[in-house]
Amino acid sequence: MANKNLNAAKEAKKDEFYTQLEDINNELRHYREHFRGKTVLCNCDDPRVSNFFTYFAYNFEFLGLKRLITTCYKNQDMDLFSQNKSEQAIYLIYDGDKNGNNIPDPEEIGIHPLKGDGDFRSRECIELLKQADIVVTNPPFSLFREYVAQLMKYEKKFLIIGHQNAVCYKEIFPLIMSNKIWLGYGFKGGAGHFISKYEDTATAGDHREGMIRVSGVHWFTNLEIKKRHEDIILYKHYTPEEYPHYVNYDAIEVSKTADIPCDYDGAMGVPITFLDKYNPDQFEILGIGLELADMSIIRQRMGKLNGGPRLYIEKDGELVRLYERILIRKKQ
Ligand SMILES: C[S@@+](CC[C@H](N)C(=O)[O-])C[C@H]1O[C@@H](n2cnc3c(N)ncnc32)[C@H](O)[C@@H]1O
After folding, report:
1. Nearest to 54 by CA among 39, 34, 68, 35
2. 50 CB less than 6 Å from ligand 1?
3. For 267-301, how does the pLDDT look when each residue is reduced to its tens digit (9 = 90+)?
4. Is the CB of residue 119 below 6 angstroms from any atom belonging to ligand 1?
């Protein structure tokens, strides 16, 4: 249900949903050591509504930051979101507490106008990006590919929110495969509640007033975290009955990450949620089903294709099209 929200957001470029302070806190507590002496940029963040700004301004001394820069996009959706009626795009600079009260007072925050609309891709915003050591935000999902490409181009460290399906994007997957990006700790239950005026399609039990529930959201980062070096405990043993071989790629199907067999050394296909547990010292990533699947075999057997490239298994004489799979192999 909640994916409907996300798909709708992507289609209509409905990017106005705001991250809760609690979720920022929950993730950022694992990264504290990275921030000492660093300039942080939040470049999709209206300081009046962004909890990223609040988090870094109020934790400035605790984290030992050097500078906080926040840019505010002059939103085009003004009629829809009154709280974001910015007439002028601006950027803020905060260099920490000066009067000893440990609170970011208005007079301690420098507010500067931007010439353009505050688009993260604009020249003036790129100049601010160049000054930053670490970028932390929830960027517009509709521009996720471009957003990540820019971070990579300027070789920035980052911690950003995106949808887990983005791992399959042809621009993103190679970065994951080559260990240039990985998933952070993530949201409880794999779903986040974001402050928004969009209609929430979550079931009654999951609904929170003034919020939308988005399933499959995750944190993407290139900052080192402990989790990334923790092995998945493998306890299952391989049998050809439990782990069928794909019809159109030389690997076995493992439908749950927890079921990866401890005694199989060949290629295995796992759901994309595997990346949440991926430890590059334990496994290597060989590729993704949509690129590796040999669809000529399927076309030959079925006479036609039902959708894009995917891995298939055979069950009771029928070909079964699987969800997207990531191909992995145990490291020796
Ligand atoms: C998913 S919201 C998150 C807002 C905020 N970072 C937070 O987490 O609370 C993405 C924000 O990016 C802004 N935005 C959209 N296109 C942008 C662009 N090209 N450059 C900068 N910001 C943009 C939207 O106005 C929106 O407020």
Report:
1. 68
2. yes
3. 999 999 999 999 999 999 999 999 999 999 999 99
4. yes
